[in-house]
Amino acid sequence: MTAFWLLILGLALASFLPRASFILLFARWPVPAPLQRALRYVPAAVFSAILVPALVLTDGSLHIGLDNPRLLAGILAGAIAWRTRNTLITIVTGMLALHLFGYLVK
Amino acid sequence: MHLHPQFLAAVRSCLPVLPGVLTFGAISGVAMVAAGMPYYLAMLMSVLVYAGNAQLAALQLLTSGSPVAIAILAALVINLRFCIYSLSMAPHLAAASPRRRALLSYLLTDNGYAIALRGYERALAAEDKVWYYLGCSAAIWVTWQIGSLTGVLLGTGIPSAWHLEFSIVLTFLGIVVPTIRDRAVAAAACASGITAVLTWHLPLRLGLLIAAAAGIAAGMLTETMLGGSRR
What is the CB neighbour count within 10 angstroms for residue B130? Predict the structure, then answer.
């Protein structure tokens, strides 16, 4: 139980400090121009790094093919997100596609 | 009660991502209970930490036998992306008092950041930007806590055959794909995705940071090669 308390307090700090870093703690620090240029690519880079492994890896190894329902559903959902720009439609179609492709593979 | 119009506008633009937030919250709630936390500690964690990716990673490490310190360090690494969001948001939130900025910091999330940034593509007064951010953040916070509480109460009752965890991936897809509007951003996304797969085996999810760095570098390089004018 002590481990949980330590974990909660540690994680609270480990989550608040990065969030507060520039909004609160170093708010007066002038951001250099190259860093500002780099910021434009942050969302695409971070989310892609979370996304792509979740689609193409199965238990840590590469799994590309028609027998990977996550990959197929992800590609379909990506195309829908591109056309509609609507997150809810993307999620709903993606979940339906995952179950449909999962059923077909079986 | 009178709510600021930009607060309401922000809540409206958050609506599409809220089902994903709710689901992700529920998943983290289930994970906390599954790790052996009593429900009151799980909710305390949900409120004090309020960082789903970090919570899930830390709990997974803890239950697989890692020391608490390693679990916290791994969470810190995963949360380093918040430094970049914080840096990016800081100029937009400069109008708020320091005490208020502490609250705004606590409320910073992946979804909230992405939606606020999209909202700031319109010209907004400094005060309106703070309200807009607050609207996104409040909607996401409330939804997350409801989801988390639901997950804690349901415990392990949700069938894993539903694959609810996949909705997190779909949420991120729905956020990132519409932002890919030029070749430089596309290069950033591709380089980062490929690097993330190649570095997947590295401990503490360090691959996530390396991949993000590779993606940013690829984006800047492409921008330079194209003359930096392609937006």
Answer: 23
Can you tell me the ipTM of this complex? 0.83
As to burial, measured by CB atoms within 10 angstroms (0-12 exposed, 13-18 middle, 19+ buried), residue B18 is buried
* Tokens found for residue B80: 């380093």
DSSP H or E segment with residue B161: none
What does the alpha-carbon distance between residue B24 and residue B144 come to, in Å, rounded to a whole number? Answer: 8
Better pLDDT: B7 or A86: B7
Predicted TM-score (pTM) of this structure: 0.75
Q: How confident is the model at residue B217 (pLDDT cuts 50, 70, 90)?
A: very high
Residue B223 at interface with chain A, using a CB cutoff of 8 Å: yes
Q: Does the beta-carbon distance from B89 to A54 stay under 8 Å?
A: no
* Closest chain B CA to residue A41: B216
Average of per-residue pLDDT across B171-193: 90
Interface test with A, best of B40, B93, B177, B229 (most A CBs within 10 A): B177
